[in-house]
Amino acid sequence: MEMEKEHRSSHPRLVLVPLPFQGHINPMLQLGSILHSKGFSITVLHTAFNSPIPSNYPEFGFVSIPDNLSEQLISADDLLPFISLLNLNCGVPFQECLAKMVQKQEVENEPSIACIVYDECMYFCDAVAKYVKLPSIVLRTTSASTYLSRNAILQLKAEGVLNSQGTSTNIQGAVAYLISALESLFNIFYLGSTSQDLVPGLHPLRFKDLPVSKIGTPEIFLQFITNIYKTRTSSAIIWNTNDVLEQPSLQEIQKQCEVGIFPVGPLHEVAPASSSLIKEDNSCITWLEKQKQNTVLYVSLGSVASVDKKELGEMAWGLANSKQPFLWVIRPGSVDDQEWKKLLTEGFVEAVGENGCIVKWAPQKEVLAHGAVRGFWTHCGWNSTLESISKGVPMICKPCFGDQRVNGRHVSQVWRIGIQLENMCERGEVERAIKRLMVDKEGKEMRQRAKNLKERIQLDIREGGSSYNYLNKLIELIMSF
Ligand code: UDP
């Protein structure tokens, strides 16, 4: 034990800077755990907003930085302006904190900081790292295909298909009313395509699957992707994906990228500790224990997406009418109406009986690994997609915004392990999709493909696999700084 400590303190320190949202904190802390197991000391520099829970990672150091942000629920609508504000507010306090850490390490002979690993959305870190003369590495927490499709959007802008306001340069006046819906602009103006047409070079994405945002002005969105993709001084890019899932996209990106990319995912498979910001309700595991093996549909839309009262009702009755047992996560704040609970009492409770369980937040990885679970109705956040794939669970995809559409399209069309709900959520469509996945032969075939993919991923993270090899190469690179 003592020897292990000695060995650890001789290894350099890594400073990790996560974006303070669940879907970003998880992969960053998982990466930290993996690198800690290889001997590095880990310090997490984080905002006061949505601060991670240090007791989940007693082996890490945590340093909180004032961010001037009020503790509030951030909806998808507020996300991009919030990230922009975060980057404006955090630069100075992070820089001061890092400068002190560097000074202290010299005086107190602490392990030296080898580099800063920051979430792609915390792009202010690039300048901070430069200022304190430390190397930096970017962690991308979305899929490689999302990167390529966002790049395609930037290209449309560069080619003049969009001007800086996101409007068409050709027919500007006629489309003023469409400015706030960037996706409509792509659909209508790019080569006269409709939303169903395939985007050239991005098979199997249609224009409607592009990860554009309807939120705020197109300018905010274009600025956001420009900021996260701007060429900076970082020495490498770590990616929470792998060759099994995305080799063609990764190869394409490596051709475009001046620095090495390291697809070392899925990180949660190598570092399973929880970094949940919301208390997990373990009673759902007790409920799962009482269900028959391989029968339950798990339903969750992640940590940010929300639904309106009407959609919630359609989801509820689709689930009830399907007669399949379900475990449903309804996160506080995820329904736009305080009165939503009434919807789930009027006849719904009687219709469902013991066949359903609703919780505010679940230990998702444990749920997906449970033998009772047969399918996952997901919003296709990248973490949820990876967690489902690595447990061999096929999906019903109901993407809500941004990269979720790209992920959903890959689940249904590339890996063919899920069904995408295409239209507005309507109870008949929901019921049919559930039966297709849970009962029909089609669902059985998807389950078999999901199992095969899971096995390939398990091999990939073991000795000799590509994820495993990339991790070793990443460690070599960090040790060379
Ligand atoms: N999650 C969880 N319990 C829940 C719902 C979600 O622990 O009840 C976790 C899930 O395992 C995943 C993360 O929250 O790691 C959500 O990330 P994702 O990228 O799927 O979606 P986002 O929340 O960023 O939209």
Q: How does this structure look, described?
A:
This protein is of the alpha/beta class and 481 residues long. Helices cover 45% and strands 13% of the residues. The protein folds into three domains: 13-145 and 222-273 and 462-480, Rossmann fold, CATH 3.40.50; 151-220, no CATH class; 282-459, 3-Layer(aba) Sandwich (Rossmann fold). It has helices at residues 2-9, 22-37, 79-108, 125-131, 144-158, 182-189, 218-229, 243-256, 267-270, 283-289, 309-322, 340-343, 348-352, 364-369, 382-389, 404-414, 427-438, 441-460, 466-480, and strands at residues 13-17, 41-47, 61-65, 113-119, 136-140, 236-239, 260-263, 296-300, 326-329, 356-359, 373-378, 395-397, 418-420. The chain has a seven-stranded parallel β-sheet with strand order 3-2-1-4-5-6-7, with helices on both faces. A six-stranded parallel β-sheet has the order 10-9-8-11-12-13, sandwiched between helices. Strand 12, helix 16 (404-414) and strand 13 form a beta-alpha-beta unit. The longest helix is centred in the N-terminal third of the chain and has 30 residues, at 79-108. The protein is globular. Keywords: Glycosyltransferase, Transferase. This is Glycosyltransferase. Belongs to the UDP-glycosyltransferase family. GO terms for molecular function: quercetin 3-O-glucosyltransferase activity; quercetin 7-O-glucosyltransferase activity.
